[in-house]
C-alpha cells in the first residue's frame, strides 16, 4: 500500500502510477514536505508488484523549479542550526537513493522548466521526455550555494566536461539542448506531443516483463559499484534467477507459440 501524502498528487491508471508535483503557484518548488512525501512514496513502490511504471511530472505546465528559495531564506537563514541544514541536504540524498532503488521503469516528463534540484532528480530517470521550449539550468551557484547532492548524478548523466560547464556557470538552456547534452532522450514540440510520446513509451515498455526490467535495472546500478568478476557473477545470478522464473517460462513459450506474453496485454 502506498502512503497517504498531501504535498504531491498520485494518480493510478492500471499498471501506471503518475506522481505530480502539485505546487504550481511556486512553479513546483521542492519544499521539505514535498521531498519527504515523494521519498515515502518511492520507498514504498518496490513492494507494489501491480505497479509496473512510474511517471513523474509537474502540474501547471512546469516540471520543477528546484529548491524552495523562500524556505531556504526564512528557515535556513532564519536561525536554523547548521546540523539541521546538513540533515535537510542529506535527506535529498535519501530521495535520490529511493529513485535509484525503483524496480519499475521510471519516466520523467518535463515542460516549462527543470531547474537545480528538479533537473538533478530527472538525471536519475530511466527515460526523460522534454518539450523543446522548456528552460533548464543548474542555478545553485548564482544563489551562493553549491549543487551538493546532484553534482554526481549530473556528471554521470552527461559526462564530467559538460557537467563542469553547467554546474559552474549556471548556464540557461532549452529542451533542444537538453536532448543534445543527454539530459533528455526525446524532445517534442509541445505538451500535447509530450502526452503522445509518454503513451508510446508505456506501450513499448509493456513488451518487457516486470521481473526482467527490475533485474536489468539492478545490473545497471551495480555496474557503477562492482567490477570484474564480481559484476560478472552478479549479472549471471540475475540471469539465472529470471531464467528459472515464471516470466521467462512464459516469455519463451510465447515466442515459440508466436503469441504475445501475458504481461504485455
Can you tell me about this structure?
The protein has helices at 32-44, 69-76, 82-100, 116-122, 151-158, 160-169, 175-181, 191-205, 210-222, 228-243, 246-256, and strands spanning 8-13, 16-21, 53-58, 105-110, 113-115, 127-131, 135-137, 173-174, 186-188. By secondary structure, it is α/β, with parallel strands linked by helices. It folds into two domains: 8-205, Alpha-Beta Complex (2-enoyl-CoA Hydratase, Chain A, domain 1), CATH 3.90.226; 210-264, Orthogonal Bundle (Lyase 2-enoyl-coa Hydratase, Chain  A, domain 2), CATH 1.10.12.10. It has a six-stranded mixed β-sheet, with helices on both faces. A three-stranded mixed β-sheet has the order 5-7-8. The chain is globular and about 65 Å long. The model has no long low-confidence stretch (mean pLDDT 95).
Unreliable runs, pLDDT <50, ≥5 residues? none
Strand percentage lies at 15-25%
| Main sheet specs | 6 strands, mixed
**The CATH topology of the largest domain:** 2-enoyl-CoA Hydratase, Chain A, domain 1
SS-based structural class?
A: alpha/beta
Q: Structurally, how many domains make up the residues?
A: 2
Q: Under the CATH scheme, which class of the largest domain?
A: Alpha Beta
Beta-strand segment tally = 9
Architecture of the largest domain, CATH level 2? Alpha-Beta Complex
The CATH superfamily name of the largest domain is 2-enoyl-CoA Hydratase, Chain A, domain 1
Mean pLDDT: 95
Radius of gyration: 19 Å
Helicity level, as a percent range?
40-55%
Give me the side-by-side strand order of the main sheet.
1-2-3-4-6-9
| H and E string | EEHEHHEEHEEHHEHEHHHH
Shape: globular
Number of helices: 11
The end-to-end span amounts to 24 Å
Amino acid at each position: 500500500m502506498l502512503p497517504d501524502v498531501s504535498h504531491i498528487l498520485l494518480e493510478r491508471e492500471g499498471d501506471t502510477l503518475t506522481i505530480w508535483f502539485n505546487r504550481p503557484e511556486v512553479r513546483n518548488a521542492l519544499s521539505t514536505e514535498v521531498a519527504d512525501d515523494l521519498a515515502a512514496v518511492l520507498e514504498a513502490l518496490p513492494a507494489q508488484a501491480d505497479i509496473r511504471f512510474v511517471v513523474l511530472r509537474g502540474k501547471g505546465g512546469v516540471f520543477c523549479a528546484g529548491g524552495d528559495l523562500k524556505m531556504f531564506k526564512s528557515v535556513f537563514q532564519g536561525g536554523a542550526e547548521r546540523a539541521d541544514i546538513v540533515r535537510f541536504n542529506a535527506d535529498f540524498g535519501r530521495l535520490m537513493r529511493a529513485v535509484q532503488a525503483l524496480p519499475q521503469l521510471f519516466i520523467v516528463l518535463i515542460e516549462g522548466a527543470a531547474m537545480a534540484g528538479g533537473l538533478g532528480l530527472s538525471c536519475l530517470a530511466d527515460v526523460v521526455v522534454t518539450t523543446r521550449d522548456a528552460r533548464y539550468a543548474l542555478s545553485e551557484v548564482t544563489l551562493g550555494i553549491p549543487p551538493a547532492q546532484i553534482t554526481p548524478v549530473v556528471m554521470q548523466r552527461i559526462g564530467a566536461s559538460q557537467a563542469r560547464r553547467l554546474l559552474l556557470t549556471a548556464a540557461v538552456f532549452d529542451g533542444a539542448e537538453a536532448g543534445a547534452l543527454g539530459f533528455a532522450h526525446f524532445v517534442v514540440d509541445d505538451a500535447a506531443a509530450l502526452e503522445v510520446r509518454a503513451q508510446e513509451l508505456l506501450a513499448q515498455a509493456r513488451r518487457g516483463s516486470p521481473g526482467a526490467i527490475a533485474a536489468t535495472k539492478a545490473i545497471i546500478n551495480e555496474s557503477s559499484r562492482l567490477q570484474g568478476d564480481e559484476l560478472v557473477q552478479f549479472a549471471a545470478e540475475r540471469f539465472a534467477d529470471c531464467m528459472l522464473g515464471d516470466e521467462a517460462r512464459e516469455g519463451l513459450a510465447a515466442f515459440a507459440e508466436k503469441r504475445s506474453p501475458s504481461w504485455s496485454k
